[in-house]
What we know:
- There is one protein chain.
- The protein is of the alpha/beta class.
- Helix content is 38%, strand content 21%.
- The strands form 4 sheets. A 9-stranded mixed sheet has the order 17-16-13-20-21-22-23-24-25, sandwiched between helices.
- Strand 8, helix 10 and strand 9 (256-260) form a beta-alpha-beta unit.
- Helix 1 packs across helix 2.
Amino acid sequence: MNIQQIAKLANVSPSTVSKVMNGNDKDISEATRARVLRVISENNYVPYSRFLKKEGLQQRVIGILLEKGFPYHCQITYTVNETASKQEYSVAAYTFSDDDSRLSAFEEIMRLNPSGVIVYSSQDIDENMNASNVVYITDTKDFATPKKNTFYFSKSDSGCMAAEYLLSAGHRQISYISDSVGKAMLQGIEEYLRNSSGASLSSCFISDSEEEISKFGLLQCVNDQVSAVICGSPALACRAAAYAVSIGMRIPEDISIISIGDSEILDNLFGGITCVSFPVKEMSAAAANFILSQNQPKSHSQTQHIFHSRVTERHSIAPPLLKRTGGKIIAVGSMNMDVTLEVNSIPIEGETQIAESIITLPGGKGANQAIGVGKLGGQVSMIGRLGTDPDGRALYKNLTDNGVNVDGVEFDPISSSGKAFIYIDSEGENTIVVYRGANSGLNHRQLERYNFLFAGAKYCLLSLEISTEAVTSTIELCRKHGVKVLLKPSAVEKIDETLLKYVDYFIPNERELQKIIPGELSIEEKAELLLEKGVNTVIVTLGKHGCYLKNRCFSEYFPAAPFTAVDTTGGADSFISALAVCMSEGADLIYSVMFAAYAAGITVTRYGVQEALPSRKTMDIYKNDIQRQYQKYKEKNK
Length: 638
């Protein structure tokens, strides 16, 4: 834009514009002068800086001054630019590395005669400068004074918030790991813990040396002596989480992790890591809006404003588990996305039914049983296969969210994740159609890769929705490591009888038992035949009629728990996982069966499977009822 265009917009001659610009405007009315200056300002016309300074006119530019390597450089620049562009302002960003370059960079910005400058610093640019258009954003409340425009948050308060969040989840033994920048957060953590009863900072490690952090810090702060760790940065949170997993700890079941500061990687790493998010974006937008408002008539003012961090929850924090004596459990089987259709009655051949509702939820025998163990506080590892589709990611996350070690889970780049189509009638009974998908790819090579998971395990939960090859390999690994097998013969027309002699607990329902041993024999007679084929113990689940137990010592019917079923889909999986957890903790078979019956009973009162499986806290509500039933049985069989 040139002087002629300015003159045209102001409806004056070019000589009048020149007089105004050069200060020779004594013969020009105040109204005309003001109109010319307004047009010059609105069109960002910059003939030379002497004139701009003389008249107090500014370019439509907001300057940003940040230290090199500052972690929130992009976030501040993007937010200020987004805010400024809405009013057709541009942004000029400069960086500095020391005191001299900071002042030099500031002088460079000021040569542009910007509308204002946003500075992220804990120090003045120039202590003698009181520029009304300089706005500081900083992470310490000590910097805010009546002489400066300051937008700030407190890192100390962020540390306090992290400690408070962990204590509210029940943690009392907490550690802290950080670099030297994290000393401010440590003050907040220590202050909060001092004022809280029964809580302490069990260990603290601060170092700028990556070697020292790897060699000493992680070992000191991530161990079974603490239930939670606060990390002074997202990078350290990633390292702490990776180290925890490498030594066999589960997040958040064995250890909870919270980061002070956020990063995109925390959203996906190990199912997501909870963090205290700094209010950088909010501060940046507020600072930009303040500068823009200062350029309005009669808007010159100074301000100090505090912003507060907030907790972003990503499931890396859980109440600390009680110490248990339960042994390791492995689940090998299918992982599916379940599509549940509620109908009046199960469709028969040639019949069309109208579904009352449809629900899509995570499922699959293997995943159901693994999550059943995890929710009851057991130590469980899952071995299986998922697709790389959204269903696969959702299934994987649900495992990690429920305390399952997913070291043995792999993603298949070719096949989609498995699906199960479930029909539930008005009585709560169901039929299921399964599409194996990626589950079919589970084979002996994958199982051999995770051979180490079987070492020291007590029980393996195995279902037949996977290939015969995978079933055979699993049983061979269990024999090698002395692991007892609990087999659920689902989705099978016929079972390889040579495998039965290696099955410790064979747990079919009535329909599955009929497929394996067809004919008019009674349940007791069929169970006896299975024992003759080598099975150690047979437990036939009978829905609302309870279950039947048969081995060389017992032949006993047990009643179902006193609950009304609305969806029986997950009853058997709940029974099996609860049976394994209870036995792994040292309970005898009879008590474990009763415990499992209550777990199954609770599950069938809820829709779905994995979300319907009971937690240990829920099971503890019925602890006395189970104990009374057990004592009655003991007295009856003296």
